[in-house]
């Protein structure tokens, strides 16, 4: 967990945000997300290159396998189809334009594991606030879109 937090902090500190993304910036962008949806199983993570559609996924383990601390799902590499990629590019652009944080936060009590989204492009990086109740509507939309594509639990390696 410390490593992921450090990576996210480093990515956010490396570059300063710009106002509006151009089409070229959106297509050369990348997204990293921690994907989790319940308190019982460890979450996964995904890195997606929005230019090529290439991804690297550390999937969530399917329950009951997630109770076994030695079980590990195989890391998946692949490329998204154009329809899914265009949808994620669009939600990325909306999240980048609006920002990932909102002014007034809501209190959210959840048993889920940690969730986070980091978006990057040339000369730009931003991450969601640690408190989920401070995420913008657009950040939540991007997370949901990523979860729909990559959040399916997988069986561990045998």
| Helical amount | 25-40%
Number of helices: 4
List low-pLDDT spans: 1-20
Terminal residue distance: 25 Å
Helix-strand topology string: HHEEEEHEEH
Round the mean pLDDT to the nearest integer and report it: 80
What integer value in Å does the Rg equal? 15 Å
Largest sheet: 6 strands, antiparallel
Fraction of residues in β-strands: 15-25%
Count every beta strand, where a strand is a DSSP E run of 2 or more residues.
6
Describe the strand arrangement of the main beta sheet, using strand numbers: 4-3-2-1-5-6
The class by helix and strand makeup works out as alpha+beta
Shape: flat
Please, could you describe this protein's structure?
This protein is an alpha+beta fold and 158 residues long. 31% of the residues lie in helices and 20% in strands. It has four helices and six strands. Strands 4-3-2-1-5-6 form a six-stranded antiparallel beta sheet, sandwiched between helices. Helix 3 packs antiparallel against helix 4 (137-150). The longest helix is centred in the middle third of the chain and has 17 residues, at 82-98. It is flat, with a radius of gyration of 15 Å.
